[in-house]
């Protein structure tokens, strides 16, 4: 569940659909008869200049992330700054400001291009020296984070090895050492992340916003107050169901690890941040995928629903090696169909789910309508592509998917069906609570970067996740989370994506499956699923604001009720 690396994420965020926001006063309007041809000439020229730079930036970022190449990080930072400088031109911003709400701008595609160009420029109306300093520091922190490897004793330990220990070991001391190794990057980058937050806040204030967090959401068509209220509502709705399933989980873990439930520590869970739920089945789910060709079985599923993934996978970097960053992500490098995935595949349930997720991003990007103007060849919103990725990522715990994709005998899987259902529900509730930690932490972080962030982090973890902070722990564990460091003010899109994923499944059920429950069995082998997704989800690109896109695709406004019906209500 990883987004794009920093440099590319910065560009994509700048091209997200727009909301109204601060702009210059007194910008002169174009004469009525000249608005459309003048605006069209401007955005055509802007996109023509931006597209090759964006591809070069994506390529440099791809190389940096997968090779740990210092020169590639430097090149990505240089290109990022060049794009930002292009978008900092005040006169161009004033023209876009005058055009974007002009009544004579009637062509809806052109209006959308103008809106997106306006947002790109709005985010960059800051002092050039501040831009340069922010980009340089962000690149430095990203490289430090992605090339760091934790240690247990004198031995480096990879991310996959940490997850293996937390997923399998029954030795509490071994688990603690692996968990602590996953946090060791925090002290390395924390001071620089705080400095970066202050620079981002300074830039946001120059543009007219109170904080960077507020700016990111507002310029991404999201009302910060509404997002906060949505997460508060979700936290309230999930509190009691989460406490119930966590109590059950704690009993299972305590028995498995031979400790008392009251003595469980954060390292007794299967994920360093408790964002993923441990298996509550007596059968280790990893054994169902052991020895399987992860690429082949995931590719086979997508092919069965009419979505071609071989070209994406052939361009991808799928396995671990020295210097490569440990987190999975999907990149669309050129908005012409060059879609790639970076992963570190192993034959286990986590990596099956991860590849399903990343290919969800991939098939979205690969099936955009490439006749659209360049700036509209992207998902309607970051959370809409997360929705598709999360919808597919859920299938690694689906009984019918395990039978059909992994070839596990049905008689072995059927007895696990109820455990798998409970595990999927547990995962949904665990993730909803974890998302609340991230959203409230980042909002508060940008409101006051100088506060006691270590204490804030654990206060939120205890409140929303029900974990107990380790006695005497004093470390910037918040800075060990990649999204806080390299993809700021993004995490809320994951839970909004989960909501939309459930809403999409409901629409699929009615439009394609005749009202049948959408799951691994009803999706598998049904090419109508892929055709429906291409038509309703992928090809529209960013031609509409996300609210209109969601309503057109699912015949309803975005609502948490579908997620609640699927997971919260049990």
Please provide a written account of the structure.
This protein is mainly alpha-helical and 570 residues long. The chain has 2 domains: 6-148, no CATH class; 226-277 and 289-371 and 378-568, Neurolysin, domain 3. 63% of the residues lie in helices and 2% in strands. The chain contains 26 helices and 4 strands. A two-stranded antiparallel ribbon has the order 1-2. The protein has a two-stranded antiparallel ribbon with strand order 3-4. A hairpin with a 6-residue loop joins strand 3 (329-332) and strand 4. The chain is globular, with a radius of gyration of 23 Å. The two termini are 24 Å apart. 51% of the residues are buried. The model is unreliable at 1-30 (pLDDT under 50).
Q: Could you give a short account of the major beta sheet?
A: 2 strands, antiparallel
Q: Could you give the distance between the termini?
A: 24 Å
Shape: globular
Helix content: 55-70%
Detail the topology: elements first, then pairings:
Blueprint: H1 6-14, H2 35-67, H3 70-86, H4 90-100, H5 108-122, H6 128-147, E1 150-152, E2 155-157, H7 159-168, H8 172-183, H9 185-207, H10 212-218, H11 224-257, H12 285-289, H13 294-304, H14 310-315, E3 329-332, E4 339-342, H15 349-366, H16 382-393, H17 399-406, H18 410-413, H19 417-447, H20 453-465, H21 482-486, H22 492-511, H23 520-523, H24 527-538, H25 546-554, H26 561-568
Antiparallel strand pairs: 1-2, 3-4
Helix pairs in contact: 1-2, 1-3, 2-3, 2-5, 3-6, 4-5, 6-9, 7-8, 9-10, 11-19, 13-17, 15-16, 16-22, 19-20, 19-22, 22-26
């Amino acid at each position: 569940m990883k987004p794009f690396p920093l440099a590319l994420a910065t560009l994509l965020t700048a091209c997200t659909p727009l909301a109204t926001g601060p702009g210059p006063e007194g910008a002169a309007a174009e004469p009525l008869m000249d608005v459309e041809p003048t605006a069209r000439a401007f955005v055509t020229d802007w996109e023509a200049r931006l597209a090759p730079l964006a591809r070069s930036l994506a390529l440099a970022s791809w190389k940096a992330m997968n090779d740990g190449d210092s020169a590639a990080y430097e090149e990505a930072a240089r290109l990022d700054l060049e794009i930002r400088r292009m978008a900092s031109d005040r006169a161009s911003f004033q023209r876009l400001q005058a055009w974007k709400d002009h009544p004579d701008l009637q062509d809806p595609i052109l209006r959308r291009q103008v809106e997106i160009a306006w947002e790109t420029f709005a985010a960059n109306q800051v002092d050039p020296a501040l831009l340069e300093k922010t980009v340089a520091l962000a690149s430095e922190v990203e490289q430090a984070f992605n090339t760091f490897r934790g240690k247990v004793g004198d031995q480096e330990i990879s991310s996959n090895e940490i997850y293996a220990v937390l997923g399998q070991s029954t030795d509490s001391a071994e688990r603690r050492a692996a968990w602590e190794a996953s946090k060791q990057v925090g002290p390395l980058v924390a001071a620089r992340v705080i400095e970066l937050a202050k620079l981002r806040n300074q830039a946001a204030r120059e543009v007219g916003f109170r904080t960077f967090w507020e700016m990111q959401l507002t310029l991404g068509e999201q009302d910060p107050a509404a997002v906060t209220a949505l997460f508060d509502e979700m936290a309230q709705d999930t509190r009691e169901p989460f406490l119930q399933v966590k109590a059950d989980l704690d009993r299972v873990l305590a028995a498995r690890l031979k400790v008392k439930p009251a003595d469980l520590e954060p390292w007794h869970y299967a994920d360093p941040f408790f964002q993923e739920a441990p298996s509550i089945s007596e059968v280790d789910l990893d054994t169902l995928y052991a020895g399987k060709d992860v690429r082949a079985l995931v590719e086979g599923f997508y092919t069965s629903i009419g979505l071609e993934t071989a070209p994406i996978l052939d361009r991808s970097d799928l396995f671990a090696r020295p210097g490569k960053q440990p987190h999975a992500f999907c990149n669309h490098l050129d908005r012409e169909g060059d879609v790639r995935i970076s992963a570190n595949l192993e034959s286990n349930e986590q990596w099956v789910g991860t590849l399903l997720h990343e290919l969800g991003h991939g098939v979205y990007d690969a099936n955009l309508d490439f006749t659209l103007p360049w700036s509209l060849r992207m998902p309607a919103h970051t959370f809409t592509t997360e929705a598709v990725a999360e919808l597919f990522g859920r299938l690694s715990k689906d009984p019918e998917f395990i039978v059909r994709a992994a070839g596990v005998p049905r008689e072995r899987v059927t007895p696990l069906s109820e455990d798998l259902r409970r595990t999927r529900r547990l995962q949904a509730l665990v993730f909803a609570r974890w998302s609340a930690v991230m959203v409230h932490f980042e909002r508060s972080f940008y409101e006051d970067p100088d506060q006691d962030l270590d204490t804030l982090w654990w206060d939120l973890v205890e409140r929303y996740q029900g974990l107990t902070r380790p006695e005497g722990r004093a470390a910037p564990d918040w800075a060990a989370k990649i999204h806080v460091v390299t993809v700021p003010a993004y995490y809320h899109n994951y839970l909004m994506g989960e909501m939309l994923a459930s809403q999409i499944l409901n629409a699929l059920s009615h439009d394609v499956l005749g009202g049948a429950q959408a799951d691994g069995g009803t999706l598998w082998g049904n090419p109508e699923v892929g055709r429906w997704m291409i038509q309703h989800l992928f090809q529209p690109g960013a031609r509409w604001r996300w609210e209109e896109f969601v309503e057109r695709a699912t015949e309803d406004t975005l609502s948490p009720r579908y997620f609640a019906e699927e997971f919260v209500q049990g």
